[in-house]
């Protein structure tokens, strides 16, 4: 696509205006999704700004630096984040790649608005990660996917043969203390295995890091954490407030994730 006068145009004649907040919406007008709401995205932005997930962003940036292809002149390829939310992790990774452009895709326009301001080299697009991605074949040298949906066939299509895909998934004991005390959604015990199955036709695993640490959350941070993800659709109101009030403060909460690097099968 080419940009002219604030409008993106594709060779087939479709055009998409850039919103005044700096993102492009590629969702079909009739599409209906349960995208993250403004309140969920605001909760995520506040939670991440407090640095609770900074160790995840640091691990992601370090593995991206270690596994990304070395530019050999010419177009270095983009750094793409699928389901990138507010752009928090993407912006940290972009700092490692000063010559690359970034594309962040998210189904929530509220997330895309924030992401468009997250880093000067990130372009934010509203689109559905389950659909065909609005990104050219082999345009990306690095693809990120952090706690977000993923379509392996499309991720493979947009990644260069020498590129790297970095995926962060929660482990079954992620946020364990809050899952038990507040009745939050549980992580599937087989999540890593199911991911490996779905990826095996397209990618080969080249690195895997499992990390477990704790974060100390006060009573303002806990509702932000609950409200920034899928629990927001199930947990709210006075009952949640009462349960949070009965937690110790600060509340020690487990952060337990798997970070995996994949190369495309060629
Ligand atoms: C748990 S959040 C993670 C956001 C970000 N990766 C982070 O870690 O801060 C999941 C994100 O995926 C987005 N999302 C959910 N379904 C999607 C879809 N079908 N296509 C694109 N994005 C989607 C949500 O809007 C949300 O921003």
Describe this structure in words.
It is a single chain. The chain is α/β, with parallel strands linked by helices and 266 residues long. The protein has a single domain, classed as Vaccinia Virus protein VP39 (Rossmann fold), CATH 3.40.50.150. It has helices at 38-49, 54-67, 88-94, 109-115, 152-158, 176-182, 191-199, 221-227, 237-245; strands at 2-4, 7-9, 15-17, 23-25, 78-82, 102-106, 122-126, 140-146, 159-170, 203-217, 251-264. It has an eight-stranded mixed beta sheet, sandwiched between helices. The chain has a three-stranded antiparallel beta sheet with strand order 1-2-3, with no helix packed on it. A hairpin with a 5-residue loop joins β2 and β3. It is globular, with a radius of gyration of 19 Å. Bound molecules: S-adenosylmethionine. S-adenosylmethionine binds at residues 35-36, 44, 83-85, 88-89, 106-108, 111, 128-130, 146-149, 229. S-adenosylmethionine is lined by residues 35-36, 44, 83-85, 88-89, 106-108, 111, 128-130, 146-149, 229.
């Amino acid at each position: 696509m080419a940009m002219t006068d604030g409008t993106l145009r594709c060779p087939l004649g479709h055009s998409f205006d850039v919103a005044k907040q700096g993102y492009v919406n590629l969702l079909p007008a009739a599409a209906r999704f349960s995208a993250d709401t403004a309140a969920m995205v605001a909760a995520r932005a506040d939670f991440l700004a407090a640095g609770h997930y900074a160790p995840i962003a640091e691990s992601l940036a370090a593995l991206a630096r270690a596994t990304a292809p070395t530019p050999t002149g010419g177009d270095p390829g983009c750094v793409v984040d699928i389901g990138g939310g507010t752009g928090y992790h993407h912006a940290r990774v972009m700092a490692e790649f000063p010559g690359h452009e970034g594309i962040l895709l998210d189904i929530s326009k509220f997330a895309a608005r924030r992401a468009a301001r997250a880093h000067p080299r990130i372009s934010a697009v509203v689109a559905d990660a389950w659909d065909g991605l609005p990104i050219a074949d082999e345009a990306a040298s690095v693809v990120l996917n952090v706690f977000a949906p993923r379509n392996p066939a499309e991720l493979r299509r947009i990644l260069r043969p020498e590129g790297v895909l970095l995926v962060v998934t929660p482990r079954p004991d992620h946020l364990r203390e809050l899952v038990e005390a507040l009745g939050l959604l549980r992580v599937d015990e087989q999540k890593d295995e199911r991911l490996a199955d779905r990826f095996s036709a397209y990618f080969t695993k080249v690195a895997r890091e499992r990390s477990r640490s704790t974060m100390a959350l006060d009573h303002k941070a806990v509702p932000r954490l609950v409200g920034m993800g899928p629990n927001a659709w199930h947990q709210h109101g006075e009952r949640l407030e009462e349960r949070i009030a009965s937690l110790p403060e600060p509340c020690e909460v487990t952060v337990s994730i798997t970070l995996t690097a994949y190369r495309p099968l060629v």
